[in-house]
Structures are given as C-alpha cells and as structure tokens.
Write a structure and sequence with these properties.
The chain is an alpha/beta fold. It has one domain. The protein contains six helices and six strands, in the order αβββαβββαααα.
C-alpha cells in the first residue's frame, strides 16, 4: 500500500509553519534522511520528521544512539518517549502523552480498535504500568500477540537506520 502522505511533505509543512512554534529555533539538517537538529526551549535536540508518531516504533527509533528527542509528525497516534509536535492539530505533546482525545490508557483499552491498538502498543513499549496491568487482564491470545510484537520491536531491522 502506498502512503498518501510522505515524510518530505511533513518536513516541508513543518518548515512552512515554523514561525507559529516560538519554542523551536535554529533548525539545521543533519545526518541522512529527514533528521535535523534544533533548539527546543533553548535546549539542543535531535529531531526527525515522520508521517505518524507510531512510525517511531515502526522505524525502531527507540533503539538508535544518540537517541531522537523530538518527533515532528503530521498525526500523533501513539505514545512515544519523546516530545511530539503534531502538525495536524498544532499541539506540542510532552514525552509519553496520549493523543488529544484520550484522558487515560483505560479509555484507549475500553474501545480497542486497530487505531487504538497503536496507542496501547506505544504505552506498552514506553513501560507504562497501567498498560501492562491492562494487558494482564486481556485474554491470553491477545496478550501473547502484544508480547510477541513487543519482542519483535526490540530487535533492529536489517539495513541502514532511518535517521543516522
């Protein structure tokens, strides 16, 4: 399936809207791909442009060293351990924040769909205790699927990393 929105488009949109984000300054391209460095609230950070925040897990960015500390994405759809700047709703999320319409992990697990599964999986990968407690209460087949997926995402993929 071809993506309808590309990472380059998200990065271009971010650069266009940069004047609206007063806490981000001095954007400089670095490395390969769409990795860049900038000042976030006066502190130098490594950042990457993604289409969705769940791509953070898909591209295994949590395994890279030095780590990415800011994700600029179009849609925030997963819990990630970094600051997230979502261009779709123009919000800045703190590390491990849930996407806008959810108040707690229990709200996400109450209506577990394929979209909410990304949020729940991100909470599991971040090590949130409430997510792990909810996982233990799920039926065994579902629990095993999540555990297998968590194990898979703790391994590097072959090839060059996304942002080096």
């Amino acid at each position: 399936m071809k993506r309808t929105l590309e990472r380059e488009t998200v990065f271009t949109h971010f650069l266009t809207q940069l004047s609206h984000f007063s806490h981000i300054k001095e954007v400089k391209m670095s490395g390969h791909g769409l990795a860049f460095s900038c000042l976030l609230n006066g502190k130098s950070v490594r950042a990457v442009a993604l289409v969705k925040s769940s791509d953070y897990w898909e591209y295994r960015l949590h395994l890279q060293r030095p780590s990415t500390t800011l994700v600029v994405c179009y849609r925030h759809d997963s819990v990630v351990p970094t600051h997230v700047l979502a261009l779709e709703d123009g919000r800045d999320y703190e590390p491990e924040d849930l996407p806008g319409k959810y108040a707690s992990i229990a709200d996400v697990a109450a209506s577990l769909s394929r979209h909410n599964a990304r949020i729940f999986f991100g909470a599991l990968m971040c090590g949130k205790k409430t997510a792990h407690d909810l996982l233990q209460d799920m039926k065994e087949s579902t629990r095993r699927k999540y555990e297998a997926k968590m194990h898979k995402y703790q391994r590097r993929q072959r090839g060059r990393p996304l942002a080096s």
